[in-house]
Design a protein that fits this description.
Rev_trsase/Diguanyl_cyclase; membrane; 5-stranded mixed sheet; Rhopdopsin 7-helix transmembrane proteins; 3 domains; 7 strands; transmembrane
Amino acid sequence: MISRSLLTLASVAAVVLLALPNTVAADVAAVAGTGAAAAAAWLAVRRQRQGKAAWALLAAGITATGAGNLVSLYLERVAGAAPAVSPADLLWLSSYPLTAAALVVMVRRRAPGQLRAGMLDAAVLTVAAAVTAWRYLIAPNLSAGGLTVANVLAAAYPLGDVVQLAGALVLVLSPGTRGTATRLLVASCAIAVVADTGYGVLPAYFGDDMVSRLDGVLQVSTVLLVAVLLRPDAGELVRAVPVRPGTLHPARVLFLGVGLLTAPALAVLSVESAGPNTWLLLAATAAACGFILARFTAAVREQERAQRQLQYQASHDVLTGLANRATLAEALLASLPNAPVVLYVDLDGFKAVNDTAGHAAGDAVLVAVAQRLRAAVRASDTVARLGGDEFAVICPGLPVPAATALADRLLAAVAEPVADAGELYRVGASIGIAPATPDATADEVLLRADGAMYQAKRAGRSRWVLAA
């Protein structure tokens, strides 16, 4: 409750900074707003259970910004000095590496071993951003004023934005959940970059009041950072995600194209008298980049299809298309909190079909039985072939009466004759039913279902038995 009250105070400060620039109220809001944000951030850090280092770095960055605001206010309002270089600059600048370090910790925690592609793509876009910042924000300032301490510090701000942007790009382009918390964090970084860019560009076109309103924009960025810390889904930023085959989104290809063309475009724009030949070279470069990206996209798509096919083959039975034993074990383990029921199905009379009619007929029977089992269960249930003529069905949260009714339907479905090559084949099934107990492991549940299935066979086959 206290944290949310502090967040509200920080939000009010942002409104004041936007509405009343260059006033005493704005000065108070700048200090009180970032102070409240820092306090709320540290309170939120204490409640986080995972990735405390990342959250502490974010809170430290907010604190550094607040301390810089306090020092700046003291120098201007109390000491009566407004030096071009002050300790406030060092505090403000320190917030960039702190935030970037927090982003690095996040991506390393939630996508270990899966960062290469995201980092390479982020590097392309970061270089493009760095070149643009140098061309329009840093180089003109250094050329006009020389390598003074003030100019070097002024150049450090856009460089800090580039570092922070690099961290945000790796976060976005690497595997991981992209819920509200992630979107708020990326929005905060983007708003900070826009505000800092405004500090370098707007003074040439607008007065002090308009430029000072950027303090409010930066406060909005800070408020969003604190909101991330307070969100219940903040853990998605530091929670490891399973390894999955990647997909190449069209937007990523577009951004890579922009990154590749940024430097050539800036080179052309830097030429004072760019003639037709210069623009023709730029067009040819753009076309070549487009062709290269198209070929790159086609190759990646082909690799993705092959990877998906390999993953499917590794997790499914080749003959029936059902889940295999390994996938069944994973599904059963994942469903244990939902009190699953396991039905172990073993075919009766299948060996006779295989021995008399051949393996082709036996395969046809297995495929038909698999289709019938899958058609009889819910979409949330898992049907697997364990090997030979043995199948299993996992039904999360299914009551025992419903499980026995399902077993009756499965018996009837399996008993239907299978037509293949003009012949009819009949098999039956013995089914063992085992509801999961609260303290049971996946292996124990499957073993109980297997034992109940053998009881059904000993009792005369073509029936089900509920495990004790």
